[in-house]
Specification:
The protein is mostly helical. The protein has five helices and no strands.
């Protein structure tokens, strides 16, 4: 099966959508559709920034990074989301993390 024309066709379609003003609507639809995909990992940062934690993952220093590699998943395939917690609630952050893990059942998190 020859798939060489798919990238060209996709680029042409995206350009046509942008010219018609529909690209934003299509992106919104795709975002909503991907929101239904399973959560892979739920983690928290407490004594470090989100950026520092993300860099640990990207450097392969975490079990999450190892699990991705073992399953052949690339960082470019992932969507990262952050949910800041009000500083008044930070003492309960571990509880929030566990509740979110229970609610989302992430595939690669330690539960």
């Amino acid at each position: 099966m020859d798939l060489s024309g798919i990238a060209d066709a996709s680029a042409f379609q995206a350009e046509a959508l942008q010219e018609s003003g529909k690209l934003k609507k299509v992106i919104d639809i795709l975002r909503r559709a991907t929101a239904a995909l399973p959560v892979l990992y739920v983690g928290m940062t407490r004594e470090q920034s989100f950026q520092a934690r993300l860099l640990q993952h990207l450097a392969g220093e975490t079990t999450f990074a190892m699990r991705l590699q073992e399953n052949g998943l690339a960082w470019q395939s992932l969507q990262f989301c952050i949910e800041p917690v009000d500083r008044h609630l930070k003492r309960d952050i571990r509880t929030f993390e566990k509740l979110f893990q229970i609610a989302s059942n992430p595939i690669f998190s330690d539960a």
